Amino acid sequence: MELSVLLLFALLTGLLVLLARGRPKAHGRLPPGPRPLPFLGNLLQMDRKGLLKSFLRVRLRWAGSEGVVFANGERWKALRRFSLATMRDFGMGKRGVEERIQEEAQCLVEELRKSQGALQDPVFYFHSITANIICSIVFGKRFDYRDPEFLRLLELLFQSFVLISSLSSQLFELYSSFLKYFPGSHRQIYKNLQEINVFIGRSVEQHRETLDPNDKSNPQSQFDHQNLIMSVLSLFFAGTETTSTTLRYGFLLMLKYPHITERIQKEIDQVIGSYRPPALDDRAQMPYTDAVIHEIQRFADLIPIGVPHMVTKDTHFRGYILPKGTEVYPVLSSALHESCYFEKPNDFNPDHFLDANGVVKKNDAFMPFSIGKRICLGEGIARIELFLFFTTILQNFSVASPVAPEDIDLTPQESGVGNVPPNYRIQFLPRQRG
């Protein structure tokens, strides 16, 4: 009882001090921002239905690790070089990866035909195809959609992403040194990640003989066993969840706007026909489809706030200083929903990416994969996946929903770190070959 009274007294004292000091001001040469409360930090200023809105409010008011994703400095440089070289060897950006995706797309078509037009939850299918592409690149093989080991991997990845995005996990990030001693979602996340690590580790052991034994003598090497595991884990999370969620959002939008779906299928019929699979070379002749895929990515805005990275040295910015070690977040959504770049940023409109002649136009504000040196490692693969999966499905199927288009809700589900489409069910109806 005495301890709780003491803590309450300390909290009230801190609040009184803050109230007495008035409005927050810039501290020295640090950028200005809202003053954190004792113990709670800026938690009460965050919108639990979307951290993005909170960050944008802060921006408007005040501003006008391990693995290749979260590493910084020399470690990041070494891991990124290795990852890019390895992915090139496995065919990223070459015909190798295109053929893998085409094969997976045809496997999906056969699986969807088995549904015979019944209502389906698309989550399973889109997770399966994107995870299989990563498995194909990383492990050298794909899995059957009903393989128990593969199904368990999908379950762990999806559950972990949901838990990491939850409010309780955001709280744990703030107070991990204290909350780690208590029950919570963080314990299940750690358990899931350990099981995924075991899955990855088994494959690493099977391929260990392919590693360069001469590199063992290099004490400065950043690429050790743990970084290998974490880099593969990062590829699974980044390469599976984001692309599959983009596809889920995309087909929800196709249900919402059937006239757009019909126009895409008309372009598919004209350029590809119905007797050969779509190929990457077709994209240049399909500007409307390409523009729709761009607009799906912009409108969905899956990761509004990019992955945090660290300032490697004291950095001067607009008269302020960002001290070495400061975490910085690229607020990608501020560009994707900026009216000076996109005429109607809150509307789904493929014309955002088409010029007056119907040709795809470049827009510097389009950065769903982030920008600069820290741009998404798998951007090339993701772009190929989105085009080939999207066109292959619409080449073979029409889509339908029991919900009328005007009643379909596009509002994303509550999530701490990303925009996730609402749950929906969809029918894949085989098209007649013409």
TrEMBL record:
Keywords: Endoplasmic reticulum, Heme, Iron, Membrane, Metal-binding, Microsome, Monooxygenase, Oxidoreductase, Signal
Main location: endoplasmic reticulum
Cofactor(s) in the UniProt record: heme
Domain of life: Eukaryota
GO cellular component, one term: endoplasmic reticulum membrane
Signal peptide range in chain numbering: 1-22
Record has Transport as a keyword: no
Binding residues for heme: 376
Record-level Gene Ontology MF annotations: arachidonate epoxygenase activity; heme binding; iron ion binding; oxidoreductase activity, acting on paired donors, with incorporation or reduction of molecular oxygen, reduced flavin or flavoprotein as one donor, and incorporation of one atom of oxygen
This protein's name: Uncharacterized protein
Organism field: Bos mutus grunniens
